[in-house]
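User: My collaborator sent over this chain with a note saying "see what the structure looks like." That's all I know about it. Can you take a look?
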Amino acid sequence: MKHLVIWIWLLLLSATVQAQNSIDELVENFSTVGSSSYTSAIERDPETHQVVKVVKTLETRGNIISDLIRAFEKEREKGHIQGEGKYEGDEDKVMFLATEDEKASRVYMLKYDGRAYQRGKVTIIIRPK
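Assistant: Without extra context I'll predict from the sequence alone. Here is the result:
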């Protein structure tokens, strides 16, 4: 019985890691596409040189947005903290996810054109523990 509990716990843990990696993988793949702009910034503690925060941003145009929306919706089904909204008077929509594991806290945000899905921006903020 103890082994069964351990296997279930490991399976759940791997599902969380894979969930994070699906959005990260899309951002990584799309960062090399011609119509995309990708930036990554690392903030370090000046005294210890430890990583405090990593911010990755992907701005893109085209059909890629539909893939990103599907990835966010897939993650929502897995029960992560999430939200969705729209800026008042703006056609842009926003989706976000927040996850946490023993290594880091992550926030994923997708802002996209709600009318045509032709432009969007993904921001990923990672805070190591």
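A starting point for your reply to your collaborator: Residues 1-19 have pLDDT under 50 and may be disordered.
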